[in-house]
Amino acid sequence: MVRRILMLALVLAALPLLAACSEEEAPFDLVLADGRVIDPESGLDAVRHIGIREGRIAAISAAPLKGRETVDAAGLVVAPGFIDIHSHAQTVPSNWLQAFDGVTTALELEAGTLPVAATYDQVAREGRPLNFGFSVNWAIARQAVLSGATPRGTQGYVADFGRPGWQDLASAEQSAAVLALVEQGLKEGALGIGLLTGYAPASNRTEYYEAGRLAAQYGVPTFTHIRTRSIREPNGAIEGFQEVIAVAAGTGAHMHICHLNSSALREVDRIAGMIAGAQRQGLRVTTEGYPWGAGSTTIGAPFLRPENLPNLDIGPSDIEYVATGERPATAERLAEIRAADPGGISIIHYLNEGLAADRDLLARALLVPGGIFASDAVPLTVAGRVLTDEVWPLPANAIAHPRLAGTYTRILGTWVREEGRLDLMEAIRRSALLPALLLEEAAPQMKTKGRIALGADADIVVFDAATVAAMADYDNPAAPATGMKFVIVNGAFVIRDGALLPDARPGRAVRGPGRG
Question: How confident is the model over 225-246, as a mean pLDDT?
């Protein structure tokens, strides 16, 4: 009897060990075999086998692994999926193009949305190929308070910039109401505060400062389109960047500056020095950029007023009205288009990418220490309307700025492989890890994104470093990039063997805790 009891005790004691062995020996859901695995957090750059189970990375092994499905990644790079913190392209067709560009998480943070909870709920119901998330949109809050607009969320673009009144100075009571709407968005899980001050340059400086205080209180970043961006003074780019740095110093908030390349323009070197100096003083100031000389926004933006163009070192014909492809020949024609369709998307050619000096200027903007790569993608449109029809291949007349389809692949193909402006590890760090680190305080789930590590989300790209390239350009802006062989989101394929799976909807919300 005693012997039987002892034997039973030994069996019971061994059960956890047996279960562990069984778990290790069980096949993984998916194995990525023999790929060149690059992890920017640990510095790993070696041939490894990746085992994925239940949407997470469960093994990183020098030895082969057994999977229910195995992808032969020999000769290919296996890296964390890219996290685009600046994507206005929050539609399924636009997500598809970003997937070919290596994006697995596309976040709308410069502008954001309002109401926040309703937008998250709507997108979750619709489903997305990529992970998604939003900041709270200060501009829409202003439109609600100063112009009587009803916030409806935003998935096509960022706000109704043609609505009058919202860009003006507000009374103390109005500013308080704006900030109350912003705070409600934070309580609903927004990832930060989107501050489009460049579209409301006359708005209250005190309101901007208080938005920074709110961000510090809730532990989220702000995302600023700077207030002024002229190459001349007064109201020049230097002043716009000074405001952001001053609020970071005064509030302790993490102040993130959007699209340095198209905000600093030809003041890049001086402004990059300002940002670096602020960081040396311990201020939480970061920035981002995209590898294109042209920007894109609504043609009715205040800084595109005809009389302001000399301050940007451009003329009317440097602006393309996307709906028709017209480049207005005169200031008068530009004014007509702005009046008729202030919300129409335009492409603004700030830098001439055919000139070596301008390409070098662009590179200096993007390669500032700690700079993040982000697309500032605008959504696909057809005949001036945002494309939401989930049809693949895309309509032949679908257009956008080429940064939607070719930001990260342009960096990989042109900047890394062809020009050697940075190495592959650094390109992946700026595309995946740095965006995750930026958002970890606001959204702890970002600690499991942007790296190839045990327990990390299986948001993974597998690409051919010898052929990956952006195919989009200003003449053919919706051409999918090449070289992405597999794009995996939460363990599920969105691109497989280089082909899109149009029915895949594995994207999940990235959301803040909504501290109240």
Answer: 92
